[in-house]
């Protein structure tokens, strides 16, 4: 498969390339595909952080198709990590469903950076969905002692199939995807406290993410350094 202009730009920006190998594959109720991968030196070279994501290069009828996925339980001692693919009708999701032990895929590491604030925030506010559930889990693990409010949007019941790593002091609300995501925007904006020194992390569909981020920044006046937000996918 030919690489496209994106690959050249990423290389120029310091992107590092690796070849991943599928070690095992497991369907989670048909709604997620969980792959265990050998990172080909990725973890040893790049280190790890909560919410860390990589760019995978899929072959879409001979054209390069780059999509981001989140490392789950990266283990630098073995060089292995898991990826959890939410299943929908897309090239990346189809590849994951069909992947077999021994298959390989190219990955580029460029752009992922995140640290929980130090000192730790007094509260976390996390907003995600099926695509960002692996990242939400990594935050719940990393900030295990920090009280958190978590809103998770789901398009159908099957999207709850992946275990959420919530503890007793994590307050979780599942929100059905309605009105093209506006229901999540309204729910979160109505529930999030108007004062306090928490840290906000928002990653769901692009327009939904923008709607929530706008409220946090413009209405509540949350500073940039207390907010991380990124659209994880785009509704067609
Ligand atoms: C930093 C980052 C980390 C991510 N980590 C993960 C992860 O760990 N696991 C994961 O599953 N996803 C993750 N995503 C989201 C994933 O990259 C997108 O869902 C991507 O669009 C999937 O590519 P595709 O080729 O399957 O579908 P595309 O070709 O992008 O889209 C095909 C069709 O599917 C729809 N679609 C795409 N994604 C979704 C979705 N999530 N839900 C419903 N419909 C969708 C599109 O609207 C379109 O109609 C991450 C995204 C980012 C930015």
Automatic annotation (TrEMBL):
Q: From which domain of life does this come?
A: Bacteria
Q: Name one Pfam family in it.
A: FAD_binding_9
Q: Which residues form the FAD-binding FR-type domain?
A: 15-117
Q: Which PANTHER family match?
A: FERRIC REDUCTASE, NADPH-DEPENDENT, NADPH-DEPENDENT FERRIC-CHELATE REDUCTASE
**What name does the UniProt record give this protein?**
FAD-binding FR-type domain-containing protein
């Amino acid at each position: 498969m030919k690489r496209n202009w994106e690959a050249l730009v990423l290389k120029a920006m310091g992107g590092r390339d690796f070849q991943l190998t599928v070690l095992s594959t497991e369907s989670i109720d048909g709604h997620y595909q969980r792959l265990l991968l050998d990172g080909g030196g990725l973890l040893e070279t790049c280190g790890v952080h909560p919410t860390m994501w990589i760019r995978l290069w899929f072959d879409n009828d001979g054209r390069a198709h780059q999509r981001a996925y989140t490392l789950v339980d990266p283990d630098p001692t073995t060089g292995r990590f898991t990826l959890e693919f939410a299943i929908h009708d897309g090239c990346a999701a189809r590849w994951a469903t069909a992947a077999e032990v021994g298959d390989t895929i190219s990955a580029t590491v460029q752009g992922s950076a995140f640290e929980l604030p130090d000192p730790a925030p007094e509260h976390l506010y996390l907003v995600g969905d099926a695509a960002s559930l692996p990242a939400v889990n990594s935050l719940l693990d990393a900030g295990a002692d920090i009280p958190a409010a978590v809103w998770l949007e789901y398009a159908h019941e099957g999207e709850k199939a992946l275990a959420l790593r919530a503890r007793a002091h994590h307050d979780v609300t599942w929100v059905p995807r309605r009105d093209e995501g506006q229901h999540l925007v309204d729910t979160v904006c109505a529930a999030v406290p108007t004062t306090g020194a928490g840290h906000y992390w928002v990653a769901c569909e692009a327009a939904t993410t923008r709607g929530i981020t706008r409220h946090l920044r413009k209405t509540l006046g949350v500073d940039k350094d207390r907010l991380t937000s990124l659209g994880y996918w785009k509704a067609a």
